[in-house]
Structure formats: structure tokens, C-alpha cells
Specification:
This protein is α/β, with parallel strands linked by helices. Helix content is about 15%, strand content about 45%. The chain is built from four helices and 14 strands. It has helices spanning about 15-25, 115-125, 175-185, 220-225; strands at about 5-15, 30-40, 40-50, 50-60, 70-75, 85-90, 95-100, 110-115, 140-145, 145-150, 165-175, 190-200, 200-210, 215-220. The strands form two sheets. It has an eight-stranded mixed sheet with strand order 2-3-4-1-11-14-13-12. A six-stranded mixed sheet has the order 6-7-5-8-10-9, with helices on one face. Strand 2 (about 30-40) and strand 3 (about 40-50) form a beta hairpin.
């Protein structure tokens, strides 16, 4: 993929705003960047995350009671650690601070629970064209300098909902959504939503991994210039 930013962003949903902001800003130490209204009673509180963005999507109304997505743990590299430091946010999302280099992570990683590891290897390597982390034996892949890790898990679900409490999607910033979206579908990827333009901010689409987890492809004007 022709990346416009060499790392992924992370999106989660919550109705529990103030405790979540306190945890992510004060306990994890992420700087607040800006607020992005999404409409429909939803606001996105964007936080700087080592060059990535943590998108805390706050829903004014109740979120659907759905099964968790496959995105189960956010790993963040933190200098000065001798081993992992495990945290849990107020909604139960797992966050682990790790020494730089752990699992190949120099900035951030996201861990997936999957039903079939072989299917996900084919998806990340074949459909998305991502390189694997050599020392990990085929169970993790680089997207820029971010790491996507996965493990087979008996409680992994099929057909995750995009909206629901917890980590729900990752965002890959690219230079041409239409071209990349079509190329990934041609290589066997599954469409979540066709490309659409969000005002003058971005042109986006969604793909889904073999378990139906959501991956946003974003052509953001602030990174690539005009959307036309």
C-alpha cells in the first residue's frame, strides 16, 4: 500500500466519557489533540499516540449490546520499562505498555483474537500486502512502523459490529482510497463500505478481515492535499 502516514490509528467507542478521558490522558499520558463532531450524537476525541491517533468516539446515546471485536489489546512502547505494564481502561479495554522493541513494536501495536490464524496470514500478506515481523513467525505484520499481532482464541467472533463498546477499528492512512480499495478487493479482500467523501476532511472506505473486523482506509486531506 502507498501509505500517507507510516502507522495506523486506533478507534474505540464509549458512553463513559469523563472516566475514559481521565484514564487515557492522565494514566496513559496521551495528549488531547482536538474534538471532531461526527453527527448522530457522536463526537470523536482525538489523542496523539506516538504519531498515531487514538480516536475515542463518544456516543451520547446507548451503544448496541454486541459481542466484542477481535481488537483486544493496544500495546504502546514506553521508554524505561524492564517488562510489560498491564492496564485496563474504565470500559475494560486492555492496554499494555511495553519496552521498545518488544514484539517488534517501536511505537504501537494492536492485538487481535482470531478464529483462524492461517486465514489472517493470507489476508494481511496477500490482500493487504503487509510485510511480516520476521522474528514473530508469521503471527504479526508491520503496517508502517505499527505492528498488527494476532492469536487464535476460542472466544473470537465472526461478523463484528463497527459500533459497540471497546476497540472497533483501525485506520490506515493512504494516498488514494479508490485505487487501494479496488486493489485489495481484487486480491481477495472483503468490502465493509464503499469509498465515500466526508466533506473536505477525507475520503474513506472500510474493509473487513476474515473475521469481519473493520479496517478504515482513509485519504485525509491534511496528509495528501486535495481529495479530488
Amino acid at each position: 500500500m502507498d501509505l500517507a502516514k507510516p502507522r495506523i490509528d486506533i478507534g474505540l467507542f464509549t458512553t463513559n466519557l469523563e472516566p475514559m478521558l481521565d484514564f487515557w490522558q492522565n494514566e496513559v499520558g496521551l495528549p488531547f489533540d482536538h474534538l471532531l463532531p461526527l453527527g448522530g450524537g457522536m463526537q470523536q476525541h482525538r489523542h496523539e499516540l506516538l504519531g498515531s491517533v487514538l480516536k475515542i468516539n463518544h456516543a451520547r446515546n446507548a451503544l448496541p449490546a454486541v459481542a466484542p471485536s477481535g481488537y483486544r489489546e493496544l500495546l504502546i512502547a514506553r521508554d524505561g520499562l524492564l517488562g510489560p505494564k498491564r492496564l485496563t481502561d474504565p470500559d475494560g479495554n486492555r492496554v499494555t505498555l511495553v519496552p521498545p522493541g518488544a514484539h517488534g513494536i517501536e511505537r504501537i501495536g494492536i492485538r487481535l483474537a482470531v478464529r483462524n490464524a492461517a486465514a489472517h496470514r493470507r489476508f494481511f500478506a496477500g490482500a493487504l500486502g503487509l510485510p511480516d515481523v520476521p522474528e514473530r513467525g508469521g503471527d504479526s505484520f508491520f503496517c508502517g512502523d505499527s505492528v498488527i499481532l494476532f492469536d487464535e482464541a476460542p472466544d473470537a467472533h465472526d461478523g463484528a459490529s463497527l459500533e459497540g463498546k471497546g476497540f472497533r477499528y483501525i485506520t490506515i492512512q493512504i494516498r488514494n482510497v479508490d485505487a487501494e480499495h479496488a486493489a485489495i478487493l481484487a486480491r481477495g479482500g472483503t468490502e465493509g463500505r464503499a469509498p465515500q467523501t466526508l466533506g473536505k476532511v477525507a475520503r474513506i472506505s472500510f474493509l473487513r478481515d476474515p473475521d469481519g473486523n473493520w479496517i478504515e482506509m482513509s485519504q485525509r486531506a491534511s496528509l495528501v492535499g486535495a481529495l479530488e
